[in-house]
Every structure is written in structure tokens, then in C-alpha cells.
Amino acid sequence: MKAVKMVAVLLLLSGLLAAVNTTPASSTLPVILSRSLEAQKLHPGDPILAKLAQSVNLGTLGNLKAGTKISGHVVAVQMDPPRGSTVTLIFDRILLPTPIPITAHLRAIAAPVEVNDALVPTNGPDRGTPSSAYTTVQVGGDVVYRGGGPVMLGKDQVGVPVYDGVLVRLTENVRAGCQGATTELQATWVFGSAACGTYGYSDLKIEHSGRTDPKGQIVLRSIKHPIKLRAGSALLLRLADEVH
What we know:
With 244 residues, the chain is mainly β. The protein has helices at residues 2-21, 112-119; strands at 28-33, 37-38, 47-52, 56-57, 63-64, 69-80, 84-94, 100-101, 104-110, 135-137, 143-145, 151-153, 156-162, 165-168, 186-187, 197-199, 205-208, 218-222, 228-229, 234-239. The strands form four sheets. Strands 1, 3, 6, 7, 8, 9, 16, 17, 18 and 20 form a ten-stranded mixed beta sheet that branches.
């Protein structure tokens, strides 16, 4: 029985390594916002800085480590009477020694409280269970069984956990506005395979994801309050078909 379990583990690990090494250049960038963005304090041209929350393989461009910086800037800011606002922004560069220009659109965004909830095990942390064996629930509902288990969305296995996040196959969520399922495993950190839209920000809407023209321009809108994205918020970006 132990031998069978060992073989199963080895097969799972080999599958994980293969998945990491074959993740295509058209991939995901799960990032953490480094500084808060407040509509009332923003101006066109203001820089935006985020960092990768999970390592990502970009094919021929190699592996990006967690912590790699992703930069962008504010394109436009509009205060919408009586209290709302609209912010247009763009993420356009991976900050390596030789920066890589990118075109990326936004699939989902989660407030820090949602991020924290996705990192805490369902039965609460205890001293006898290492974090590598936690069972957690992703933003969007996937259940992650760490320590050799799968990532499940309902009754469907959609991916596998890795040491710094998860690799899942993205599913379409047309109702929420996300198209483009993937057959390849993608790095999504705390986001589930069907995560789409905003989480933990009740007065925030992704009005334009940047997936269609104007590509790369992300438009966020609020109605009741000026937009304020807190530092530590997570964003799930998706790269265009080609990394320049």
C-alpha cells in the first residue's frame, strides 16, 4: 500500500513539474498591489506598482519568481457625481534587468480581507498541521487540498496546489463577464478557476477588462464612493496572446 501511495505521489509531482515547464507565454500574472490607489489622489501618468504573488513560467522568456515587480500607470481619472468615480489604468511592464513590455487584461480583483480568507485553512490553523497541508477555499470557491491533494470546483478537479499557490485550468464565467477557458494549467495564487470580477469591494465594477479594444486598458467604476484599492489587494491579470 505504501509503495502504491509513493508511486501516486511521484506521478503527481512529475505532472506538476511538466505543467510548470509547459505553461504557455499567454498566461496569468497573479499580483499583489504594492500601494493603495485612491481616485481622489490619482492623476493621469501616476505610476502603479505590483508584485507577483506566485512564480510563473513564461515559456521561452523563462520563469518569473514570486516578488517580481509589475508596473503600470494611471491613464485617466474621473469623479462621477454625486460620489462615484472611474479610473482607467494599465499594467504594461515586467521589471526585469531588461524590462519586458506586456499587454494584460484584468480577470478578477480581491480585497485584502478576501486574500486573507483564502490563505487561512477552513478549520483554522493549528500547531499540528503545517501550512503545506492546509485545506483552503479560493476566491471564487475552489477548494484546495494541499499536501498532495487536488484543487476542486464542486465535483470537478480543476488543478493542483504548488508550493506557492495553485495551478488551475481557467473556466469560462460568461455570467460574470469572463471568457476564454484554458486547457493548460495557469498560476492563479488565491484565485479559483472561475474567479471573475470583484471580491470584497461591493461598490466596484470592472467596466472594461482590457481584453478587447482598447486592449490593456482596464476601466474600474464605482457609484457610491470614490475608488480606493487598498495595498495588498490581489489582481489576476492575463497576458495577451504574445509577450512582446
